[in-house]
Amino acid sequence: MELLSNADIKKVLLNILIDLQEACKKNNIRFYLVGGSLLGAIRHQGFIPWDDDVDIGLKRPDYDRLQELSKKDDFLPPYLKLISHEKGNSQYPFMKIIDTRYSMEQGYIKEGDVTSIWIDILPTDGLPNDDRKIKTIYKKAALYREILMLNFAKAGEGRSKLKALLKPLIIPFAKMIGVNRANKLLDNLSRSTPYEKADKVGCIMWGLYGSRECMNRLEFEKPVEVKFEGHVFNAPSCWDSYLSNLYGDYMKMPPKEKQVTHELKVWKNL
């Protein structure tokens, strides 16, 4: 198999994104660049130089529609596959789209069925108006995510020596709860406030920035076009306040020690 360079990995990710956008447009589904991908679009007009992933967000009703449409054989090109916990072929609570022409290995965790290069597809869910309730929801989500990730962590490995030492001690407790239950807890929590009735929305199940993920629903839904690697994609109209909440002075480059990748190894299947 042929090992891909970081530049090659980005080309594959971009092509997945373009193919998915074409399929979604045909079915009147809109997705938005979010997280680091949106930051890259605004600050670099493409990938963050040291980044090696793509994140997109959909409002919950469109997310569920995409899940159903992915069951059709002609929805995506044959080399692309949409995987999810609901389908039984992913360990994560959200969808991923993978390119099956490639194989992948990632440091620190055992990916299970996620053995190909991917794009994360994240639902944006309704949030209550009460700020205290929002913080409680995100605290619960963080706990459930930690339990989930420990279920397929590699014992003895981690981003720090302390984490590597602690993992063998706490992994057994996480496994008592298990992947299925952790994912169900995350999904139920994310759906606890109906999207269409909410004034505020945010990514809950994978909202790593907690209550800072919160946006006005109408501002999130209104699309604006941004350039990403020479192509045009949608972003939420509130992209400036969203990025400021997540990253602070987002146009300022972070220090070298924070410029980290997912440590992917990707091969093209020959």
Structure description:
- With 270 residues, the chain is α+β, with helices and mostly antiparallel strands.
- It has one domain (2-263).
- Helices cover 39% and strands 20% of the residues.
- Strands 2, 3, 4, 5, 7, 8 and 9 form a seven-stranded mixed β-sheet that branches. A three-stranded antiparallel β-sheet has the order 1-12-6, with no helix packed on it. Strands 10-11 form a two-stranded antiparallel sheet.
- A hairpin with a 2-residue loop joins strand 10 (223-228) and strand 11.
- Helix 4 (131-151) crosses helix 5 (161-177) and helix 4 packs antiparallel against helix 6 (179-190).
- It is globular.
- The mean pLDDT is 91.
What secondary-structure arrangement, pairings included, does this model have?
Elements: E1 2-3, H1 6-26, E2 32-33, H2 35-44, E3 55-59, H3 60-69, E4 80-83, E5 95-99, E6 102-106, E7 118-127, H4 131-151, H5 161-177, H6 179-190, E8 200-202, E9 215-216, H7 217-221, E10 223-228, E11 231-236, H8 239-247, E12 264-268
Parallel strand pairs: 3-7
Antiparallel strand pairs: 1-12, 2-3, 4-5, 5-7, 6-12, 7-8, 8-9, 10-11
Q: How many strands appear in the DSSP assignment?
A: 12
Helix content: 25-40%
Instruction: Pick out the low-confidence regions.
Output: none
Main beta sheet: 7 strands, mixed
What is the H/E string?
A: EHEHEHEEEEHHHEEHEEHE
Shape: globular
Q: What is the mean pLDDT?
A: 91
Q: Oligomeric state of the chains?
A: single chain
Number of helices: 8
* Percent in strands: 15-25%
Give the helix/strand class.
alpha+beta
Number of domains: 1
Pfam families: LicD
Protein name: LICD family protein
